[in-house]
Write a structure and sequence with these properties.
Layout (H helix, E strand, L loop, with lengths): L4 E6 L8 E5 L5 H15 L10 H16 L1 E6 L2 E6 L9 E4 L8 E6 L8 E6 L5 E2 L11 H23 L3
Parallel strand pairs: 1-6
Antiparallel strand pairs: 1-2, 2-5, 3-4, 6-7, 7-8
Length: about 170
Amino acid sequence: MSTRATIHFYDLGCEKPESIIFRHTDGYPKETGVDLYKFFQRLSKLNDPRFHDASMLAARYVVYLAEQFATDYKEKNGKWTETPKKDRLDFLSVRVLPMDTCDTAFRYIVRCGGTGGFPTVECIDTTDGKRVPIPLPKPITKNPKYRALEDEEVASARAAHEARVHRKD
C-alpha cells in the first residue's frame, strides 16, 4: 500500500493553507520531506523563485512532482526499469485538493517566508498528531543570491524546525 501525504502551503501569517497538494506515494519524511528541500534547491536557481508566494510555490510543486511521476515502471528478468513517458502530462500520484483527505499518513506544513527567504517545512504523523523530523539536506543551495540567506534564515529555520520536533506538547 502507498504512503500518502498532503502538503499544505501557507502564506506568511495565514492560518488556512492557500493550496493543498496530495501525493499518493512515498509520503515518508525521508522521501517527501527531502523532496521538498530538493524542490527548493531547484527553485533557488531561478531569478524569481517566489518563495514568499504559497499558491505559486504549490503550482510549481505540482509541475515538479509531475516530472517525477510521468514514468513507466516495468519488470524484466527480476529488475525494475524506469522509462519516462512521452507526454509529461501522463502522470498519476499527485492532485490538488480543496481540503485535507482522511487517508494520509503524513501532513506537511510549508510556511512561506515574507522576505524572500526559504520556506520552512514541518511534518506531522496523522496517526498520532506528533511532529516527525525531516532529514534536511546541507547545504540547501549553492546559488550566490541565496547563499547569504542560507547562513542566516535557513539556519534559523533549521533551528526552529528542530525546536518544534523536540518540543514536548
